[in-house]
Amino acid sequence: MPSETTATSESTIAAPLVITRIFDAPRALVWKTWTEPESIKQWWGPKDFTIPYCTVDFREGGRYVFAMRSPNGEEYWSTGEYREIVPIDRIVCTDCFADKEGNVVPASHYGMVDDWPLELILTLTFEDLGGKTRFTLHHAGIPAGQMRELIGTCWNDSLDKFAAALAQS
Please, what's the b/e burial string for 107-118 (b: 16 or more CB within 10 A of its CB; e: otherwise)? Predict the structure, then answer.
């Protein structure tokens, strides 16, 4: 397994993936559901995936570690560092593949292409719409190609589950 990132040319990095949703819930509830580990376990990951492990040190410089389990039992681990937190307004964090110990690993650890960056940047904004919330996700650094489409599908699945979790709150 390679210990260093393979260089990725800028031409292979696509514009950030941007997804915007309007949630029928107040911004404080959307924020809480996004940031608390017990809530995250209800919605993180694509359809039919579960979250057997989730830790969050929700502060600037703090880290998160999540495990997603597919319906056939495969686990995919991720980690990141919170770079900026503006309560109920904005979160900026890194997004990386990880091993079970929470160490950053290359995408090839999970059988993906070698030119995937070790670190992506996730920026989340939460805008008050008078009792509803406009949520915008910017996922920067994803290489162009088929995996980008899959990542978009996975995020949309997660956000569908997120909306369902909000409705139950």
Answer: bebeeeeebbbb
Residue 2 domain-assigned (yes or no): no
For residue 120, the one-letter residue type is L
Total number of domains constituting the chain: 1
Measured from the Cβ of residue 162, the count of other Cβ atoms closer than 10 Å reads 23
pLDDT digits (tens, 9 = 90+) for 28-67: 999 999 999 999 999 999 999 999 999 999 999 999 999 9
- Half-sphere exposure of residue 46: CA atoms within 13 angstroms, side-chain side: 10
- Give residue 93's domain range: 16-168
Q: Evaluate whether residue 150 is within a structural domain.
A: yes
Q: How far apart are CA 80 and CA 10, in angstroms?
A: 22
The structure's pTM equals 0.90
- Which CATH number covers residue 118? 3.30.530.20
Query: What CA–CA distance (Å, rounded) separates 115 from 130?
Result: 43
